[in-house]
Each structure stands twice: as C-alpha cells, then as structure tokens.
C-alpha cells in the first residue's frame, strides 16, 4: 500500500464562521493507495476529537493515537486501498501538523497564537478540507466516512457541499451536540483552565510534554468515563482492587482507578491542552441547523446517500439522535437517501474505535 504524508500551506485567507480569518494556514494529510485516472475512487476519512491524519498504523510515527482505524483501512480491508484512494486530513485546530493554537501567528513572527487563535467550528474544518481537496484536483469523492467528531464533519459536508460526496457514512454522531456531552467537555475545559501550570494559556510547552498537565489528565479521566458504559466498565474491571494496594489505604486503588490514572496521565503528555479546549468548543457548538430555520431546512439540499451507524450503549451520542436525522430526512421527502443501523453493543461510545466486527459490514456494503 502506497502511503504519502504531506503538509500543504494556503496563502489565501480562510474565512471562518465567526467572522475572523486564518491567513496563512496549513493542513496536514495522508493518502493511501492510488488515485485512478478518472479520479472517482476517492474516500475521505474524517477524524474524531483526538484523532489525526494517521488512521493507519505506522510504527515510526510519534503521533498520539496513530492507527486509530487500522483494522478498517488498508489492502483487502473493509476500506480497501487496492480499490480506493483514501485521504485523511488533520483538522484545523488540531496539533498534528495543521494550523492550531500552538502555531505561529504568522511565518514572519515568532509568537504563537495561543488564546489569540480564533474559535473554529466543524463548518470551518470542513471548508478547509474542501479547499485542500479542490487544490489536489479532487472535485468529487466516492464517500466521506467518520466517527464521532468525524461523523459531524461528514454530515456538515453533506449540507455545505451537497454535490461533493456520492455517499456519506456517519458513525456514533449527531446533528447537534446535546447538554450531556457539553457538560462532560466543560469538566475538562475548567480543569485545564484552573490548573496553575496552564498559566492562562502561556504554559511552558516542554514542561507540559515532559510532565503533562494535571487539569487535562483529570478532565480526560472524566472523558473516559463517558466513552465507556456501565456494562463495559463492570465487565472490564468489576470491583477488582490492585493486588499491591491495601483496601484500607486512602490512596489504594481499584483497577478502574488505575485505568483512569494511566490514560489520563499518558494523554496529558501527548495532546496539547489549548488544542483540546478549541476542539471541544467546536464540538459543543456544532449544530447542523445553524443558519437555517430547522434541521429539515438544513437537509433540504442534501443529495448524498447517507448511512448512519449508532451503538445501543453509546452514552454520548444516543441512537435516538440518528433517528432524528432519519425523521428530518423523511419529513422533507428524502427517506430514500438515508439508512440507520443501530448496532447492539454495551461497550459505549468508543465502540466505533473498538468493535469493528460489529459494523464493518455496513461500510463494505455501502462501498460496493
């Protein structure tokens, strides 16, 4: 499988939904496979909150969470790179090569954006990706596939660029972020901002990379609780206590405590806290109906065949939220364009990153 990773710089301003601009800006992207002569075998992969443009595992990559969809993408895999030219970008605002709060304000200046970085939305991320693909000569794609925040992007593509994708597959996502998700994000946002080491966004980058940021670690623990489910936690950890810890020691830990500690601390050394603030803000304010009278109105121009995949045990984006999209499409006479598959799973939201065997056939069928 041919793999190429590049960073492209755009000099023309990116006009953002907020009214502000980014100029210039970079987009990092990775391609897998070969583009055919007709240029009609393109699949765009859109990533989730902590994902990157590296959905396929690369052993020499130092990018956090690289290979997050490794079981889905590759030669002979469900998203078959022998057939398709797969492209995955790093969204504007993320830290893996695209312009973010930790990028320089301008190539000629030495200061970083930090909190001077503008709020970017899902709509802005999609606009930047569309500009990138157009610059590569790609005018239309076979499919756009993404989970969670990636699913939001895929839906936004269908609304903003209705002739761009033949098919859209949105997994574990929603048409608008609900209070439950916003509340969990708020915990992390406040934990980050209240950490003394954060210094109102002026933290020492090297120190945070070396030691992490306690606020981000604690917030990520809360995040991991929301990514799982009651059943999956019980099955995975039970009430098991760490063997070397005393039950009557105030610092003694259950296995679930150890899991949260490990993942929170590891993450806080691997992901930038300012990027986390900006990306969770983008998730919080996501609403397909922004600028429209209703969700139905937003979906009026939708022309792609839409496949929604949800998981019964997902506590962040409930299957009912996908049903609402189906209902809206039905109300405007587009029932024939949409399908919703609810997968039985007690794993939780992270099922879209774990339980591939439960949903990959839906992707295979749609890509026939």
Please give a handful of descriptors for the protein shown.
368 residues; alpha/beta; Rossmann fold; Rna Polymerase Sigma Factor, Chain: A; 2 domains; 8-stranded mixed beta sheet; 12 helices; 12 strands
3D structure, described in words:
With 368 residues, the chain is an alpha/beta fold. It is globular, with a radius of gyration of 20 Å. The strands form three sheets. Strands 1-4-8-5-9-10-11-12 form an eight-stranded mixed beta sheet, sandwiched between helices. It has a two-stranded antiparallel ribbon with strand order 2-3. It has a two-stranded parallel ribbon with strand order 6-7. The protein is built from twelve helices and twelve strands. It has two domains: 3-177 and 288-366, Rossmann fold (3-Layer(aba) Sandwich); 181-281, Rna Polymerase Sigma Factor, Chain: A (Orthogonal Bundle).
CATH architecture grouping of the largest domain: 3-Layer(aba) Sandwich
Determine the structural class based on helices, strands and strand pairing: alpha/beta
Report strand order across the widest sheet: 1-4-8-5-9-10-11-12
What's the story with the biggest beta sheet?
Answer: 8 strands, mixed
Task: Extract low-pLDDT stretches.
Answer: none
Domain module count? 2
CATH homologous superfamily of the largest domain, by name?
Alpha/Beta hydrolase fold, catalytic domain
How much helix is in the residues?
A: 25-40%
Span of the ends, CA to CA: 20 Å
Q: Would you count the extended β strands for me? A: 12
Given the C-alpha coordinates, what overall shape results? globular
Task: Indicate the CATH class of the largest domain.
Answer: Alpha Beta
Average pLDDT, all residues: 96
According to CATH, what is the topology of the largest domain? Rossmann fold
Number of helices: 12
Strand content: 15-25%
The Cα radius of gyration reads 20 Å
* N-to-C SSE string, H for helix and E for strand: EEEEEEEEHEHEHHHHHHHEHEHH
């Amino acid at each position: 499988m041919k793999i190429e990773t590049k960073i492209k710089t755009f000099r023309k301003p990116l006009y953002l939904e907020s009214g502000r601009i980014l100029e210039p800006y970079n987009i990092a992207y990775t391609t897998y496979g070969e583009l055919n002569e007709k240029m009609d075998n393109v699949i765009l992969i859109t990533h989730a909150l902590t994902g990157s443009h590296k959905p396929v595992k690369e052993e020499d990559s130092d990018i956090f969470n690289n290979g997050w969809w490794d079981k889905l993408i590759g030669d002979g895999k469900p998203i078959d790179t022998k057939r398709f030219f797969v492209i995955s970008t790093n969204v504007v605002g993320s830290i893996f090569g695209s312009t973010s709060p930790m990028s320089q304000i301008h190539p000629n200046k030495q200061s970083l954006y930090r909190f001077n970085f503008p709020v970017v939305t899902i709509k802005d991320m999609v606009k930047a990706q569309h500009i990138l693909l157009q610059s590569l000569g790609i005018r239309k794609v076979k499919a756009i596939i993404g989970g969670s925040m990636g699913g939001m992007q895929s839906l936004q593509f269908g609304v903003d660029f209705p002739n761009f994708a033949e098919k859209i597959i949105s997994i574990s996502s929603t048409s608008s972020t609900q209070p439950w998700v916003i509340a969990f994000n708020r915990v992390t946002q406040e934990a980050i901002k209240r950490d003394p080491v954060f210094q109102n966004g002026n933290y020492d980058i090297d120190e945070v990379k070396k030691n992490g940021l306690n606020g981000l670690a604690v917030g990520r623990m809360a995040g991991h609780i929301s990514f799982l489910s009651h059943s999956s936690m019980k099955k995975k950890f039970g009430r098991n206590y760490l063997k070397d810890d005393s039950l009557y020691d105030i610092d003694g830990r259950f296995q679930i405590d150890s899991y949260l500690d490990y993942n929170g601390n590891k993450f806080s050394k691997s992901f930038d806290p300012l990027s986390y603030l900006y990306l969770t803000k983008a998730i919080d304010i996501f609403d397909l109906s922004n600028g429209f009278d209703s969700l139905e109105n937003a979906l009026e121009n939708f022309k792609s065949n839409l496949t929604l995949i949800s998981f019964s045990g997902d506590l962040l984006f409930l299957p009912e939220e996908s049903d609402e999209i189906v209902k809206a499409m039905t109300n405007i006479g587009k029932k024939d364009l949409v399908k919703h598959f609810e997968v039985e799973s007690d794993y939780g939201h992270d099922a879209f990153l774990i339980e591939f065997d439960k949903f990959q056939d839906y992707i295979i069928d749609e890509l026939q």
